[in-house]
Each structure stands twice: as structure tokens, then as C-alpha cells.
Amino acid sequence: MTSGEVVAVCVSAEKHVQKEEVEEVLLVEDLGIRGDAHAGFGHRQVSLLAEESVDKMRAMGLEGLRPGAFGENLLTRGLELTRLKVGDRLRVGKDILLEVTQIGKECVDRCAIYYAAGDCIMPREGIFARVLKGGTAKAGDRIEVLEEGPRDREAEEK
Fold it and tell me: Counting runs of H as helices and runs of E as strands, what totals does the chain give?
């Protein structure tokens, strides 16, 4: 079982902007994060990004990157998000259950980070999930992979 921790939780009332770090967020089943612009946004209800990915951008000379800079709701450390597959399930804290629905994304517009560094990690290394079971999440919560997605299990059986 792979696990890590939540480093920060972030929200924004508008889409396509950096999110603000907050003390805690309420994840609602089949909705997303209450008060976030992506709540109710189909299969991309919650976005996750690993702090290790943000560290890559810092190594490219981008200083002052704070949680939420890439539009992520949950910033994690220690969990290899890039190894997850669609269908994988994650537990956040004691109660929250997420299902990975998308790996990476196509950016609507180039962001300020892309123009500053010539690259952005969210399209490749960010993941999206839907909320199967809600609860409150905050920095310091454990995040763990519970099971592999259905496509992975089917591939192993063949």
C-alpha cells in the first residue's frame, strides 16, 4: 500500500486561477469541495498534485510557489501520484474516499507559470478524482492508495 500525506488544502471561487490555501475543506460525495469552483464539475471534482512535482518547477528557477499555485485542491507529499491509474481509489484521512478519474489535463490557456518557466507540470502530473465518500480534509492527513483501478486488475487477469 502506497501512502503519503496532505501538505495543504486549497480552494478558489473561480476557475482558471490559483487557489488559496485554507485550514480545512469539506469534500461532499459526488460534488467535490464545498466552496470550490470545480464542485459539481463532473469527473474532475478534486485536483491533486504532488509537492515533489512542484519541486521540479522550483528547480527550474521558479521561486515563491505556494500551495494552490497550480490550481490544485490537495497538495501531497510521499505518494507517487504519477503512478496512479484511472479507477484507483484513495483514502484521505479516516473518512474520505476518492476515485481517480483523469490523469493530467489539457490547459485552456497558457498560465503565468508556463510563461515564466516554459513548462507547467499540472497537464502531465496533476490528477483528478471524484468524491465517493465525503468528509473534512486538512494538512497533515494521511493519503493512501486503497486499491488499483478496474482496468489494472483486468489487465493482470489476461
Answer: 4, 11
The whole-angstrom separation of Cα 29 and Cα 7 is 22
Q: In what order do the strands lie in the sheet with 135-138?
A: 32-33, 24-28, 135-138
Which residue intervals of 17-149 are DSSP H helices? 51-59, 112-117, 122-125
Summarize pLDDT for 111-154 with one digit per residue, the tens: 444 444 444 566 567 899 999 999 999 999 999 999 766 554 44
* Interval 33-83: pLDDT, tens: 999 988 887 888 999 999 998 887 777 776 777 888 878 899 999 999 989
Give the span between the Cα atoms of 111 and 113, in whole angstroms.
5
For the chain, the domain total comes to: 1
Tell me if residue 153 falls in helix, strand or coil.
helix
Identify the sign of the CA torsion 4, 34, 10, 54: positive
Query: What CATH number corresponds to the domain at position 65?
Result: 2.40.33.20
Domain that holds residue 51: 3-157
- CA 130 to CA 121: how far, in whole Å? 21
